[in-house]
């Protein structure tokens, strides 16, 4: 069954339900597993509406993540950036994707990340001390949500935190859908050049950039690819987690019963399950995984032809009642383990163990240390990142 | 139950280690999964089935006893 919809992406959220995916998008789930949608350049890729089919397709090697392939459903207009290659391996296919990814997987192993927990706890406690000592109301994004993951990823990569204003603003431009292609291109170039010059100064510091520099030195990796990987890790390493911290806090403040469950529990299992549930419920990577078919693929009674674009919106996949009963309810005690917030398939988030530990530390500390934390703006006045490649809030004014 | 782990497919997501650290571990050099025991005792079967289901790279196959 082929259903053509008039739906154009990105669809708008319901202003009254800022945590829910766009209602029009959700409705497609009831209509059919695959529908045609229209995107900004006029092309009409497939949209895969259900959890099970999204999972299956994301593990299918016949789908490519390479945006230079004809038919790839681009998020935004792309401008070729001269001589610098792409943003790391997130937009490459195997075997090259696998070769490059494995150069940086070691520090994200569960045990290695677990060893960072005490340091992350200190960072979180220090930032809370500073916020409490400062003026109120405070902007939770600036004072807390952005610094936590930025400090952590800087340490891991070996990037000087003093440069945070530079890399945070370029990262914002890079992932905002409202940036012009020129601004986006210039920010990518600036980040790429920044990482490239950092790499040139590295020697055996034990951080991740030093390890990449070593590989450049012995010819396994080009300087351009190394800088691209650096950009990917730096951008993905702070923007995403920062949005989960601020948007997650707002969602909990709007669901006081769930916040109370989390605050009153000593059980690390409950904290871990709350993190998974918030990842599911909020699915901040809300523009969908994007792929293009390299061969004909049969899925859910439909044939996706070679050369056709495929969009896999993990936000509605994570609200599929076929997988998660009562999906629109935030329930920190549910088993949300099969959510797709980190994607699925070979590109599934490399930083997920780190993001989990950061969020576990934050969610188990912030609301206990500041039990009176509340927002000081009306929900309707809070600026949500409707134009962001990653969803969240631009600002969250809070007091205590 | 016997676990067949395809290390070439593994993308070092760590999902299996998170699900059952008594059965799965990761190599130091690149985080690729390793098996601590290929035939876990029944107390681990539920967790191992879940690990196979959430492995993003379909690298964990299970041969269940009849
Ligand atoms: C809560 C926070 C995070 C969320 C929701 C998130 C989400 C995602 C998603 C959905 C993908 C899949 C992209 C695709 O399939 O096209 C992805 C990939 C990736 N993420 Fe994350 N991420 C988070 C945190 C992090 C952190 C902290 C890092 C690094 C330190 C990171 C690094 C990466 C990298 C390198 C990839 C590309 C993997 C590949 O292509 O093989 N992410 N992330
Ligand atoms: S879950 Fe799969 S991809 Fe992830 S570490 Fe285990 S075997 Fe590798």
Automatic annotation (TrEMBL), chain A:
Keyword flag Endoplasmic reticulum: no
The species this protein was found in: Actinoplanes couchii
The protein's name in its UniProt record: Cytochrome P450
InterPro entries listed in its UniProt record: Cyt_P450, Cyt_P450_B, Cyt_P450_CS, Cyt_P450_sf
A Pfam family recorded for this sequence: p450
Presence of keyword Ribonucleoprotein: no
Stored Gene3D superfamilies: Cytochrome P450 (1.10.630.10)
Family to which the UniProt record says this protein belongs: Belongs to the cytochrome P450 family.
Keywords assigned: Heme, Iron, Metal-binding, Monooxygenase, Oxidoreductase
The organism's place on the tree of life at top rank: Bacteria
TrEMBL record, chain B:
4Fe-4S ferredoxin-type domain mapped to chain residues: 1-29
Role played: Ferredoxins are iron-sulfur proteins that transfer electrons in a wide variety of metabolic reactions.
Keywords: 3Fe-4S, Electron transport, Iron, Iron-sulfur, Metal-binding, Transport
Necessary cofactors: [3Fe-4S] cluster
Originating organism: Actinoplanes couchii
Domain of life: Bacteria
A Pfam family the protein falls into: Fer4_13
UniProt-recorded name of the protein: Ferredoxin
Gene3D superfamilies on file: 3.30.70.20
